[in-house]
Structures are given as C-alpha cells and as structure tokens.
Design brief:
Helices cover 26% and strands 30% of the residues. The chain has 327 residues and is an alpha/beta fold. The structure holds S-adenosylmethionine.
C-alpha cells in the first residue's frame, strides 16, 4: 500500500527522493478531485514526477487506489492545502507546470480569503515555476474567468500564451469530472495558459520548521488546579491566530494537556501542548507534543508561549523560568 502523504509528514522543503524512485522535473496539480486528470498527467508525462495537492481525504483515498491499481511510480497525491505546499514544500523555480481545474466552485465574495486565485498565491506559483514553466487554469464560471484574467494579466512574471484572455476549447484536452458535468449542464470551460517569462520576481524561500518549542516554569499549583481555572482563549501574535480550546488533566501524573488551533498565513494546524512536572519541586515543562503531528512552526511557538504565559499568570508565586522559543 502507498504510504499516505501529507504536508505534516513530509520534509520541508520537499525531497523528491523521499517519495519518488528518482528525481525528475515536477508537475503539480492543485485540487485533483477524483484523480483522473492527475493519472492522465502521469501517463502522458513519464519523464516527469507529478504531485497532486488536495484537501479532501476522500479524494486522496480515491486517487491513491487508482494510482496503486495502475502501478504508477511517477505520481503521488499529498494531503495539503495548495497554499501551504507552495509556502513550505515547493522551492523557487522547481515546478515545470501547475494545473488547476475548476477551483473554488463556491465562488462568492465572502469566500475571498479562502479563494485559490489571489495575489499571494499567484505570486508564489510564479516564483515556484521554472523558466518557461506554465500555469494552466480552467474554470466554467464566467465571473471567475473575468476575475482570474484580471489577476493573471496583472502578474508581470507571467505571459499569456493566447491572444485572448482565455480560450473556450483546447484540442486534445483530458476532460475532468467537473468539466464533463459543466458540459452536460450547458457550461463551457474557460482555459488559461500563462508562461513564466524572464521578468524578475521575488522568491520567498520555503518556510522551514523550527526546533520543538518548550519553556520551563515554576508554579505552586497542581496540574488539576491549573485545569480547574481553564477558560478557552484566543490571541494573536505576529500574524498567528491562536485558539486554546480545551484542557484535560491526568491528576495521577500531575500532567495537563491543552488542545490548540493555530492559524498562520501559510498553514493551519491543530496541536496538543503538554504541561508536565520536572524532577525539581513545583517546576513544569510546557511543550508541543507529537500528538496530531503538528509541525513546530512560528505559530506553534507562540501557542506554547500563550499557554505557558497563562499558567504563569495564575498565581503570584508562579513564573516562567526559561523560554526555548523562537521570537
Ligand atoms: C470543484 S472541485 C474540482 C475537482 C477536479 N479538479 C475536477 O475538475 O473535477 C475543486 C477541488 O479542489 C479541492 N480544493 C479546494 N481548495 C483547495 C486548496 N486550497 N488546496 C488544495 N485543494 C483544494 C477540493 O477539495 C476539490 O476536490
């Protein structure tokens, strides 16, 4: 069986040797749905490695089963938001082509933050394309096409391959599931192709993980007394939004754990932070645990700080002794 790949269990940035039999130029499909287009890409481009990025676990399972049945070694689906993979996994000038088919079907004003085609995502895709690499986009929503056209035409690092904003027919194109549905319901595709040109663009390096965050504190309170005083809280630090949602105690071991959700511009993660006793009396370590496979990002460092700071503020005799945190 294929090992399930996720943004949380891969090296940052991507090491092709970890997931492919050998390194090849890379093609990335974003939001591959039922995986048929992804498989067609793999079969039509045997000299490339293909990565599919998806947020739906069901789509992941379907694509994995299809890839396994066909015995393809040059294609791997990765469970990840595209935005997260662009920021943490993919290096500048490493992708020969991006394919995005029928993104954001819920295209509405209020979903702007979640929309795939937006300034920072398009800029990152442009940075990740190799010289001459191509961004392929298809949509059947005409408002989306107008919107995407404005964005892409306004990206100096990309050049339109057509003499019009988009074309409504592409010979030899493999039809995706959504595409077929659109045709059946009388909607046609709008196809975009933009090539990376020689215009210089900025290349934000892939965001690496940090060391595991922890801090030491002294408190006369037991873990049970700490959890008794717990109230869910939300805070913001350096662009990271931290929600400390729940706390649990194991009174026998004098251990408390805190469930956190950390929302950073590039990644949203759930994590568990543990407060456990040290050998010294009244001393604790507060640290991010491996539960849920949260990666030690800047936001996770802020979450450990938030939990530790809250505990240290509960009693006059409590204080933080040492912080092993990145500022
Ligand atoms: C409308 S479906 C299109 C599926 C497929 N491309 C097709 O044409 O049949 C959009 C797909 O994008 C995925 N998706 C949405 N936002 C995403 C994101 N930010 N990163 C990765 N995948 C995403 C969804 O889970 C869904 O499978």
């Amino acid at each position: 069986m294929l090992t399930k790949l996720s943004i949380l269990n891969l090296s940052w940035p991507l090491n092709q040797a970890e997931i492919f039999d050998r390194a090849r130029p890379l093609i990335v499909e974003i939001g591959f749905g039922n995986g048929d287009y992804l498989i067609d890409l793999a079969e039509a481009n045997a000299d490339h490695n293909i990565i599919g990025l998806e947020i739906s676990s069901q789509s992941m399972d379907k694509a994995e089963a299809k890839i396994e049945r066909r015995g393809l070694s040059n294609v791997r689906p990765i469970h990840s938001r595209a935005e997260t993979a662009l920021a943490h996994l993919l290096e500048p000038e490493s992708v020969a082509a991006f394919h995005i088919n029928y993104p954001d079907p819920w295209f509405k004003k209020r979903h702007h933050r979640r929309r795939l085609i937006k300034r920072d995502t398009v800029d990152l895709m442009t940075s990740r394309l190799t010289a001459g690499g191509v961004l392929h986009l298809a949509t059947d929503i005409s408002d989306y096409a107008e919107y995407a056209h404005e964005f892409l035409a306004d990206t100096p690092g990309l050049s339109n391959q057509f003499d019009r904003p988009w074309v409504n027919e592409l010979k030899g194109r493999f039809h995706t599931k959504y595409e077929e549905k659109g045709y059946r319901q009388g909607r046609s595709g709008h196809f975009f192709q933009y090539r990376r040109n020689a215009h210089p663009v900025s290349h934000p390096p892939p965001i690496k993980e940090l060391e595991m965050p922890h801090l030491f504190l002294r408190s006369p309170l037991s873990a049970a007394e700490i959890v008794e005083r717990f109230e869910a809280s939300r805070s913001e630090a350096g662009g990271a939004h931290i929600a400390v949602l729940r706390a649990y105690v194991n009174p026998k071991r004098n251990v408390a754990i805190f469930e956190v959700v950390v929302d950073e511009p590039s990644i949203e993660q759930r994590g568990v932070i543990a407060l456990s006793p040290r050998p010294e009396p009244e001393e604790y370590i507060v640290k991010l645990t491996g539960i849920g496979h949260a990666r030690p990002t800047y936001g996770m460092h802020r979450a450990v700080e938030a939990v530790g700071g809250w505990v240290a503020g509960l009693d006059d005799g409590a204080r933080v002794l040492e912080r092993k945190l990145r500022d």
